[in-house]
């Protein structure tokens, strides 16, 4: 499995609302079209209204590369910066967990 933990900081409340809309539209397409995307979870951060965190888990790096190649993901990547003041990305190597069907 391959994952990402991404922290986005929006510019202001208006930008946060627009970013959330972009995320919702993109998420619908990810759910409908990406069987290799195991988890794609987006969270607001309690006490920090301009921050969003994404936890993304893919079957493998190939599934992640497939995700990144989708037109709707590329559109998200090109549109997101207008709403953001910061982006932090951590790439994750899965060790163990609950709720995820893992074959080793």
From TrEMBL:
<dbReference type="InterPro" id="IPR011008">
    <property type="entry name" value="Dimeric_a/b-barrel"/>
</dbReference>
<keyword id="KW-0503">Monooxygenase</keyword>
<feature type="domain" description="ABM">
    <location>
        <begin position="2"/>
        <end position="94"/>
    </location>
</feature>
<protein>
    <submittedName>
        <fullName>Antibiotic biosynthesis monooxygenase</fullName>
    </submittedName>
</protein>
<keyword id="KW-0560">Oxidoreductase</keyword>
<dbReference type="GO" id="GO:0004497">
    <property type="term" value="F:monooxygenase activity"/>
</dbReference>
<dbReference type="Pfam" id="PF03992">
    <property type="entry name" value="ABM"/>
</dbReference>
<dbReference type="InterPro" id="IPR007138">
    <property type="entry name" value="ABM_dom"/>
</dbReference>
């Amino acid at each position: 499995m391959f994952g990402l933990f991404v922290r986005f900081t929006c510019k202001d409340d208006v930008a946060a609302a627009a970013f959330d809309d972009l995320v919702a539209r993109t998420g619908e397409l990810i759910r409908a079209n990406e069987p290799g995307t195991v988890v794609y979870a987006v969270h607001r951060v309690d006490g920090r209204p301009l921050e969003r965190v994404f936890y993304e888990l893919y079957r493998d790096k190939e599934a992640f590369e497939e995700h990144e190649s989708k037109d709707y993901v590329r559109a998200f990547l090109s549109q997101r910066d207008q709403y953001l003041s910061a982006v932090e990305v951590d790439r994750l190597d899965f060790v163990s967990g609950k709720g995820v069907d893992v074959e080793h």
